Amino acid sequence: MVAMERTSNEANSAVYDMVVVGGGPAGATAALYAARADLHTLVVDKGLRSGALGMAGSVANYPGVRGPVSGAVLVQRMRDQAQEHGAEFVQDKAMASLLGGASHEIIGTLGSYRGRSVVVATGSMGRTASTPGEERLVGKGVAYCATCDAAFFRNRDVAVVGTGEEAVEECLLIARFSSRVHLIVPAPALKVDAELAEEVADHPHVRLHRNTRLEEIIGEDKVEAVRVTGPDGESELRVDGVFIYLQGGKPVVDYLGGQLELTGTGCIRADEVLTTSVPGVFAAGDVLCRHLRQAVAAAAQGAQAAMAAERYLSGRARLRPDWG
Ligand SMILES: Cc1cc2nc3c(=O)[nH]c(=O)nc-3n(C[C@H](O)[C@H](O)[C@H](O)COP(=O)(O)OP(=O)(O)OC[C@H]3O[C@@H](n4cnc5c(N)ncnc54)[C@H](O)[C@@H]3O)c2cc1C
Fold first, then answer.
1. Ligand 1: does its nearest atom lie under 6 Å from the Cβ of 286?
2. What's the mean pLDDT when you consider all of the chain?
3. Below-70 pLDDT ranges, the chain
4. SS3 for 102?
5. Residue 97, Cβ density class (10 Å: 0-12 exposed, 13-18 middle, ≥19 buried)
6. Which listed residue, 29, 54, 98, 245, has the most CB atoms within 10 A of its CB?
7. Atom of ligand 1 nearest to the CA of 55
8. Ligand 1 midpoint to CA 246 (Å)
9. Domains with residue ranges and CATH for the chain
């Protein structure tokens, strides 16, 4: 089905039951559940390929979808399904917001969208690709998630770049598949506890490069090597993939203007039913920085947030279990 989109003028004039910001797996699933609960629902999204799943080259672990399929195809299917059930979509970028009161307002570049409830689902792509070659080779060997992509590098050589716990844990997971993992650490030492540092240093597949900076990712249609500068000067390492964990993913919350409470690491703080610090505003997906950052987890949180919003809107603020 070819999705029918709202123009921003049409969407501007209405007050929706729910405005979902972000149309990735979290937002599209929130919209599906909201629309099926008969809520007048609008999704504001800036682009199919701008989110994490939208830019994933190949997805093979989404239940019920035998892959590999491109991330963009999977997101489009989720959006089509939400639209078939009545959710509306508008392509716009949220720039600001006014949250609180009877209706909340999301202000985009093309117009403003008002909702009696809001689901924030803009993901965690706030770190801009900053290494030469990185942006061009995303999904072609440049990756950010071992759970998603490590298996594609079985018996291959890869580089992992980072200093913290996330980088080291992902490195150990990748080392189960890859023949050799170059762990490139742009600092004198890893910023992890001694036990984890020892485990990775002793791993037979891992080669540690301390005090080493990633300068460039080399390759035309796929990653072929990385250029690094270390204590012995500049060198090239032949690799088929690069997993980057620099500064971590940054939740996209700039348009919220500090109106929602965040955690110390800039993620949206939400309770177990995904209510944020502002009544009527819910959050789902990678903006929450929960343990498992995967499409299936984001979709599940989207469903939870939509159901919590439905209960909020109907005045049943206290949630009961669905089987109760
Ligand atoms: C390269 C890569 C490969 C991956 N591979 C897999 C995989 O194989 N399997 C798997 O399960 N997971 C994979 N992941 C992880 C998965 O993609 C994420 O966990 C998941 O997409 C999070 O869903 P989300 O809806 O929270 O965010 P996203 O998918 O990032 O969606 C956010 C949406 O918000 C929109 N948006 C952002 N800012 C704004 C704004 N200001 N205004 C309007 N819209 C906005 C974006 O356009 C986007 O559509 C991968 C991630 C990456 C980066």
1. yes
2. 90
3. 1-11, 126-128, 247-249, 317-324
4. coil
5. buried
6. 29
7. 1
8. 18
9. 8-126+249-313 (3.50.50.60), 142-244 (3.50.50.60)
Its pTM stands at: 0.77
Q: What is the pLDDT of residue 174?
A: 95
Which of 302, 308, 303 shows the shortest CA–CA distance to 320? 308
Single-letter residue type at 173 = L
Please count the CA atoms within 13 angstroms of the CA of 1 that sit on its side-chain side. Answer: 12
Which of the listed residues 53, 77, 147 should we mutate to test ligand 1's pocket, taking the one with most ligand atoms within 8 A of CB?
53
Whether the link from the prior residue into 68 is cis, omega within 30° of 0, is yes
Tens of pLDDT, residues 6-34: 666 666 778 999 999 999 999 999 999 99
Annotation marks residue 267 as catalytic: no
Q: Return the best residue to mutate from 148, 243, 245, 296 for the ligand 1 pocket (most ligand atoms within 8 A of CB).
A: 148
- According to DSSP, residue 228 is labeled E
* Best CA proximity match to 20, nearest among 303, 315, 321: 303
